[in-house]
Design a protein that fits this description.
heterodimer, A: about 160 residues, mainly alpha, 5 helices, about 80% helix, B: about 110 residues, about 75% helix, rod-shaped
Chain lengths: ~160, ~110
């Protein structure tokens, strides 16, 4: 009976070790990328692309340099939308003011897309060529191409 | 005195006859109950057969190997699912941080 208990116990312990071992092997690269990324949102780049430390540093610098511009664009978008929303809701026809604001919003969108695309090119150039191409394809698909997002994201 | 009482009881018992007849299946029923009580339960039979099986090296090794394979399979599956989830969440955070129309920097 003792031998049977030992076999049963050994089997369970070995099975659990196998489970956690494989689980760790599969999730460790992602956990490592998350821990090593000083800028949290850049962890994905570490997970997805084969980047050297210097390439990652350069991309981090580009990213941090782009963020204030992106913030400014966000502020301008929010301002236009704040002006546009009550006008649309309190009107029954397209007034010249609405038309002007829609034009401003479209122009703003174009500026945002141009600046975003410039940033994508800069980042892709900081990567090894095949990785940079893959990065561009992914970003085009998710942002400029209006592709479906892998997860629902709640913006501010 | 006690001997006399015992003799009386003995003679009384000798005279005592049972007039009631037993049902026809009485004997077989008694044997059936004896057999049922001495038969091991399903659980007993299972544990006994498991004991017998795990005493032999090959089935014991196969059991341990099976649990290892099961653990590896489930670990790989769960790990891949969680890693994928982390990748997608990280991608969402990245895109959200650079696209003003998806939320912009936080």
């Amino acid at each position: 009976m003792r031998r049977v208990g030992a076999v049963l116990g050994l089997g369970l312990v070995a099975g659990l070790c196998a489970f956690f071992g494989l689980y760790w092997l599969k999730t460790w690269p992602q956990q490592k990328a998350l821990q090593e990324s000083e800028v949290a949102e850049l962890a994905w780049l570490r997970m997805e692309f084969d980047l050297s430390e210097s390439e990652f540093q350069r991309i981090s610098e580009l990213h941090l340099g782009y963020l204030p511009e992106c913030e400014e664009m966000c502020r301008r978008i929010a301002a236009v939308q704040a002006k546009l929303r009550p006008l649309i809701l309190h009107s029954t026809t397209v007034t010249s003011e609405i038309e002007a604001l829609l034009g401003e919003a479209a122009d703003l969108r174009r500026q945002c897309q141009v600046r975003m695309l410039e940033h994508f090119y800069q980042v892709s150039r900081a990567m090894p060529e095949p990785e940079g191409k893959r990065y561009l394809e992914r970003m085009q698909e998710l942002t400029l191409g209006g592709g479906a997002f892998p997860h629902p994201v709640h913006g501010h | 005195m006690q001997m006399k009482e015992a003799d009386e009881i003995r003679s009384e018992l000798r005279r005592w006859t049972i007039s009631t007849t037993l049902p026809r299946e009485f004997k077989s029923e008694v044997w059936r109950k004896i057999a049922a009580s001495s038969r091991p339960s399903l659980w007993q039979r299972f544990t006994e057969s498991m004991e017998a099986l795990l005493h032999r090296p090959i089935p014991a090794g196969a059991y341990i190997g099976l649990l290892i394979a099961l653990g590896m399979g489930m670990g790989a599956w769960k790990g891949a699912a969680d890693a994928n989830e982390t990748r997608h969440t990280s991608l969402a955070h990245y895109v959200q941080s650079i696209d003003p129309y998806r939320g912009g920097p936080r």
